[in-house]
Amino acid sequence: MASLLRVNGDLKPFSLVSRAVRDFCKPTLFRRVKVNARWLACHPGDRIPQTVWPHVTLLRLHRPYSEHFFPPGYEEPVSHVSKLLRDTLCLMPRLHTVLFTNVGFKGVPWKILDAVLSTSTLLSFKANESLDHVESIPDDIRFTIPPLRHFVQLNNNHYRLQPRASLVEQQLSASVVEQASTSLESVALSSEAAPSLEQFRRPWPNLRELTLQGERRRSPTPISPPIVSLFTGMPRLHVLVLEFALPPGSGRECIWPANIDAHFPWPELRTLSVAYPHPDDQIYSHLPVTLRSLTLRCYPRHYVHQLWPNLGSTSEALRWQSPILASSELLKLLRSARSPHVTDLDIEYQQDDQEMALLEFLPLAYPNLTQLTLHRYRAPDSADIDVAELARLITPLDRLRVLRLHLDFSYAPHPFTVMMDYGREKLSNLIQKTDLHAGVLARMLAPSLKVVCFLRQMMAANTWTPYRILIGPDGERTARGDLTVAKECNIRLSEPSGPAPASSIWSE
Question: What percentage of the chain carries pLDDT values higher than 70?
Fold first, then answer.
């Protein structure tokens, strides 16, 4: 009952009825707690009562360390915070999850991380921002990792400049891989902070999900074994995400090169996402019948790379490449990757003379699709795609419910100009035309279709605009812009943002 009241927002008023009722509500009321740097700096008004501690299962440390909240001249604030955490967390017997949020520019000192990870009951650790930026750490530092089930160490700032990772991040992820691989069920790591891929060659008997995302790191050895040989100890893997940005001098790489004698190591795989897939990769001709979701993309999305000339110091520092697949290359890959049970397909390509053949092939190879995402880019000096022809080619997808399209229309405004007068005019024209395109798709595609989305770029934001498919009294199908249909169809409208534009864009 307490859980139901919490969902409806009525738990707190109900808990004030009496002491007995409050005691009844405590395990639900205080199972998730958020604390900030003021509490960790022992500001009396921000302390959590000790009576709450036994009920906490999830602790969110919001900006867990900030020197600003300590009095001037306070000695050893890091040691103070780490000791406070050690003394407090051991008094939370139900605690199983710790999240770091808004950690600040300087990150989280390694001593504080060590204090959190020494909690014996901890099962899940998550940090979506960078950690300690110290230039060196003591040689004898070895994080003691409990038998974690879930570990996330990603960086929400995809475009962070140098250093791309810190020594603390690398030491932490290496310790997790070494000490907890047999207990972990899900791992998500920024590739820059992850240990070398060679260190993943160990048993992972319980691993279900693995995400490696970020800039591809150079191998420490001249000839590195391919992933199909390194990730063989993950027999129960369900989700594999390999999304690497390509620094200068790198290109597409095969997960399973043609000259490697191997077997497919993940027989239960359900979701596969690969950035810059290689058309000759053997992995795609060995996909299991369990596969339901396949994503073949650029990282970041190619539309971010299209803005590279306007990103100033960001693009100059990162210098990432985007060797996007041509439609002929993607067609070659998909012909080897026939997986008729896939229900969710996300592809990104640049048009060439095989584009119509590619689109015609999709319903033949993937007849069970319920969601299709197309990121299609025009070749230089090429015309826009005919939306009616696109609809005709994919009409046989009679189970399709969600269609998401980014078609790189020539009349779309530059994302960094939409706040200017001429940019607003072009944006208005784009909206009118996508309204018409949505109507065409609604009339021509299968009756199963529930929503069509078009990507809209405004400044650094990339957002899907959803259109609900309506059926009139006469049976005619139309499309109407409707944000609520996104929730009904479980569509995330916001895509990762791109870097902020260079100031020079405003003077162009």
Answer: 84
Is 407:376 a contact under the CB 8 Å cutoff? yes
Give yes or no for a contact between 99 and 58, defined as CB atoms under 8 angstroms apart.
yes
Burial of 497 (0-12, 13-18, 19+ CB in 10 A): middle
Q: What is the mean pLDDT of residues 282-301?
A: 96
Per-residue burial over 458-479, b = 16 or more CB atoms within 10 Å of its CB, e = otherwise: eebebebbbbbbeeeeeeebeb
Q: What is the pLDDT of residues 95-136, one digit of tens each?
A: 999 999 887 777 788 888 888 998 999 999 998 877 876 767
Question: Distance between CA atoms of 259 and 342, rounded to whole angstroms?
Answer: 28
Query: DSSP H helical segments within 161-201, as ranges?
Result: 167-180
- Give residue 364's Cα distance to chain centre: 30
Instruction: Give ∠ CA 228-233-235 in degrees, rounded to 5.
Output: 95
Q: Of 25, 45, 21, 26, nearest to 35 (Cα)? A: 45
Cis before 300 (ω within 30): yes
Mean pLDDT of 386-408: 98
Q: Is 167 helix (H, G, I), strand (E, B) or coil?
A: helix
Distance of CA 406 to CAs 101, 105, 383, 398, Å? 32, 34, 15, 21
Which among 326, 324, 278 is positioned nearest to 299, based on CA atoms?
324
What backbone phi and psi angles, to 5 degrees, belong to 373?
-120, 120
Q: Is 231 exposed, middle or buried (0-12, 13-18, 19+ CB in 10 A)?
A: buried
Confidence class for position 253, pLDDT limits 50, 70, 90? very high
Strands (E), 163-279: 186-190, 209-215, 239-245, 271-275
C-alpha 103 chain-centroid distance:
19
Helix axis angle for 387-394 and 421-444, nearest 10°, is: 30
Is the model's pTM score more than 0.85? yes
SS3 470: strand
The residues that bridge with 34 in the sheet, in sequence order, are 60
Tokens of 75: 């000695």
The one-letter amino acid code at 351 reads Q
Sequence-separated (6 or more) residues with CB below 8 Å from residue 443:
476, 477, 478
